[in-house]
Each structure stands twice: as C-alpha cells, then as structure tokens.
Amino acid sequence: MTRDEAEDYIYESYLAAQPYLRYSDPDSLKRHPELTRDILRSLAHAPAIVVTGSKGKGSVARIVAALLGRSHAVGLMTSPHILRFNERFSVDGKDISDDKLVSCLEAVKPAFDAVQQGLAPGRFISPIGIETAIALTWFERMGTDIDVLECGKGARYDDVPNVPHRFAAINTIFAEHTRELGPTVGAIAHDKSYVITPGMEGVFVAPQQDTAMEEIQERAESEEVPLFCYGRDFEASQVRWGRDGITFDLRIGARRIEDVRLSLLGEFQARNAALAVALADAASGTPLADEEIRDALASVRMPGRLELLQEDPPVLLDACINRASCSQVLDALSHLGIAGGVTTIIGIPDDKDFLGVADAMKEVSGTIILTASSNPHYVFTEKAHDVLAEQGIASLFVPTCTDALRQAREIGRPTCILGTTSLISDIERLVRGSVEN
Hints:
The chain is an alpha/beta fold. The protein is 42% helix and 19% strand. The chain has 16 helices and 17 strands. The strands form three sheets. The chain has an eight-stranded mixed sheet, with helices on both faces. Strands 12-13-17-14-15-16 form a six-stranded mixed sheet, with helices on both faces. Helix 4 packs across helix 10 (267-283). The mean pLDDT is 94.
C-alpha cells in the first residue's frame, strides 16, 4: 500500500455511502460512532485529552501539546491539515512519516474491513474514526505518555470521544454546522457536551453563551465530572498586541503569571492559552513551571490562523468561513493599524457563509475578490458574485486563487485572505513557493 492509497482508504467507506445520504440530514441520522467504539477503546494506551468547540479547537490542542511536551512524550491529532495529510498526526512536534502512516493503517485495516463487511448501504465508517485508530497505533509505538485528540464538528456523533479520556476542553460555542449539529447554540452545545464522559477528572470550558453553558453544566452534573470555567478558575487579562504576537497576564486559580508572550495574533488566542494552560497544569500531574509555560507559548505556530504573511503591505490570512469569525479578523486589522481600503479575498464554497463574511468585511474593504480553491470537492461559482450584487455588495470573481493573489498585489493595498482550509492550503503553497523562488 502506498501513502496515497492509505489516504484513499480512510475515505473509502464514506464515499461508498455518499449516494445514499441526504445532504439535509443531521449527524444523528448519518454518523455511527458506535462502529468504531470497540476498536478505538482497544487501541487506547495512554491518558488522553479530547478537545471540542466551535473554533479554536486546533489552537487549544496544539498549545496543550506544547505545554505538556516540556516534560512528557505527547501524541497530537488535529484536523484539518494545511499542506500535507501527515500534519494531522504528530509526536513531540514531529509529523508522522509516509511509511509509518501506511504501516499504522495496515495494522488496523483488518478490524475496519470486518466492520465494513456488515454495513448496509448508506452506513459508513467515519474517516475520523479511522484517523483516530492510526493516531493511537502510532502513539503507542512511539511510547507517548499523554495523547491530545481534537474532535471533528461535534462530539455526540463524533468518533474521537470513543477514546477513554481523563480530561476534556470545550472551547467557545457559536452557531456553526447548524445543519449537522442543530439549529441553535443550545442544540450545538448539547451535542458537543457529549465530550464529557463518566469517570473523567475534569472538563475545562471557555467563555460561553448562557444557553451553551446550561447544556454543558447539565451534562457535567449528570456524569459527575468537575467543571472548570474561564473567568472563575482561570483567565487571561491585559492583552497587548504586537505584529509578531500578543503579550498578556495569566491567572490559573490563585496563581498569576505576568507578561506571557504568545506567538499568535488575536485576543481570543490569549483566552485559548489560558484554557490550555489550566488544562495542561491539571493533566501534567505536577504544576508546570512558569518558564515551561513561557517557553511553550512562545513556540506555538498556527499557519492560517490570523497569520501575518507579509508586513509591507500587510497580508493577513485566516481560515474564517462565517460571519461570527469576522469579528476576530476585524479586531486584528484594527490592532495592526489598518482602518480601510483593504483588498479582501474570499474563498468560501457556495453552500457556506460567503455572504456573511463579505457583509461583515465590506466596511473595511476597498475591493472584494471572490475566488476558489483547487479542491474539487468544493463548489465555487459566480453565483456568489450574483448573491453579493443582490445585496448591494460589489465584488469581482477571479476563478483561481493564484490570479486573485496576483490581482491583490497589483492593487498594492493591505490584503486580507479569508476562506476554507483548502484555500488556506493553496495560499500557503503560493506564498512559500514565491519565497523559495
């Protein structure tokens, strides 16, 4: 088996079922995490931490791994990837190699083949269930002490919470994936609250809307799991911006650490860091030293998350795909001293919230360019341009992100690039290629 064949196998069951699935159905009618439960439980070998939320799951997971990695061997599974599928699996900051990826899949494939043989049309083994099995297999081979696993969209019908875990994190929840998870923030929080399972030692929760917090509290109480909340048990304050990151003060319980630097942009990243530090401190067994915390936070990198690709003129890149996330982008532009005239490139599929993003960004945009990623599974058409025109929002449709980026450079104004992960991947490749050349 080649590496590409291994990646194809991960999606094979889902693609075979796809013709039988209705797009409008929620996850509760499509996904079957019970199919992987016994496999994943049999592969678990180390204490695990599971991370969910609406955005920032990856940031929290990476920060937790960086913190615990100062004194432990740490396995990390995140998704999606930016440049290579292998990025989804790492141990102590090093991604899995192609041959190890193939070897780990071959080790678990017979178990999944046996499950697949008994499935009716329309039922499928979730790709993330197979990915989690690969991760656990590799982590055991590498002798990890702690594993950090990021959920997919939700938790109740996600395979990752099948892995026995001591701790969990729930980042801020807002209205996203409403078709799959539920029409309200409360419904979405109810789904994600299933990351809380019996026997856990604690769940750490970011700031939440009241309806979301009620669902989380109810689940934690019913499973008798201790709840640790932002603002009460831990928090970040006094956030100061720079072009290469932020500086802030941390409080974890009664403990205070001043002037902590994080090499990421955004006040929300300070909140992510506080959540991650509180969680890592509890999971490590012994309190993390101040210098361990400082060193770990300074080392974290998150490509495509409010990433400043260029300073003159500024080029800001973010995986923003809905209106709610635009507030973070606008905040970043303000702190970077960019008040208007921005060339905004938007690469969001036709079935996602391209209108909400364009509407939120129109006041600071001199030009809005709609574009597409190279991923053939997403649909980008001039329909988006027509929808914006109906709302009185002027835009250009440029079919490739290469030409969109070229046009933005010709305009010569600050540029903000927002879109789905496949667009972020394309832009990262373009920018890295131009730097190398």
